[in-house]
Amino acid sequence: MPTYRDEGIVLRTFNLGEADRIVTILTRNHGKVRAVAKGVRRTASKFGSRLEPFMVTDLQFYQGRSSLDTIQQAETLGPYGADIAGHYDRFTAANVMAETAERLTDAEKATNQYTLLVGALRSLSRGEHAPNLTLDSYLMRAFSLAGWSPSLDTCARCGSPDNLTSFVVHFGGMVCGQCAPSGSARAGSETIDTFEALLTGDWEYLETVDARHLGRVSSLISAYTQWHLERSLKSMEHVAR
Fold first, then answer.
1. Which residue, 43, 54, 128, 228, is the most exposed by fewest CB within 10 angstroms?
2. Nearest CA among 120, 113, 114 for reference residue 136
3. What tens digit of pLDDT does each residue of 138-155 get?
């Protein structure tokens, strides 16, 4: 049976038997891969720590007959896991990122999603920005890559560029006053500017925005994320919004 090499991000792990572990990995060239790491839970394992969540690793896989491949080798490329796990806010944000990436990808090549997640985890591990900002920016970009970028400059329902007053999750973005359902929360130009800054990574602007406003935008992004994924993210429950 063939072997292949790829680099990947460990999204999550499950214990298997007494010493093995099933690892879900987003790879650069093979999309999402589920593989068995044999003996990885033994203290003598050579690559146990290299297969912890949020680590970026160069891997060699053995492609077996079952739905699970086998990991034969693992070499660390990005040791982000320890720096993330040591801070609760980084850890909870990274879990949402990993769960989102797992939902948005499959066995098909998804290089852009892979590159985006690597960059987000690297930034998170270094503490470059507030974890909530890094998370929100990641979510906006990930959904944009998946083809679900919210409508920000025209009404998501009628297409009008005028009088955009509310952000309505199930319509897909900003809507005008005529299309906004009764009771919709108001969202003006500052909300649009914040969404656009998150999409483009305008950190200088984001760091000047009022914390309460950022909290409201985070709540909208959380709702938007879970609406498009069609079910709630378990990890989102632990993120302070």
1. 43
2. 120
3. 999 999 999 999 999 999
Residues 111 and 17 in one domain: no
- DSSP alpha helix (H) spans, the chain: 81-85, 88-104, 111-126, 131-145, 189-200, 203-206, 211-229
Say yes or no: 143 and 195 in one domain.
yes
Place of tokens 């609406």: 227
Does 152 lie in the same domain as 73? no
The one-character DSSP state at 65 is S
Q: Are strands 69-78 and 32-37 parallel, antiparallel or unpaired?
A: parallel
Q: Mark whether 105 and 138 lie in a shared domain.
A: yes
Burial class from Cβ neighbours inside 10 Å (0-12, 13-18, 19+) for residue 153 reads exposed
pLDDT at 194: 97
Using only the alpha carbons of the chain, give its radius of gyration: 20
Judged on CB neighbours under 10 Å (0-12, 13-18, 19+), 86 is exposed
Both structure tokens of 169: 């999750």
Q: For residue 29, what are the domain limits?
A: 3-79
Domain co-membership, 216 together with 142: yes
Tally the domains of the chain: 2
Inter-residue contact 60 to 105 (CB < 8 Å)? no
Q: Rounded to whole angstroms, how far apart are CA atoms 123 and 118?
A: 9
Percent helix, strand, coil in the chain, to 5, is 40, 25, 35
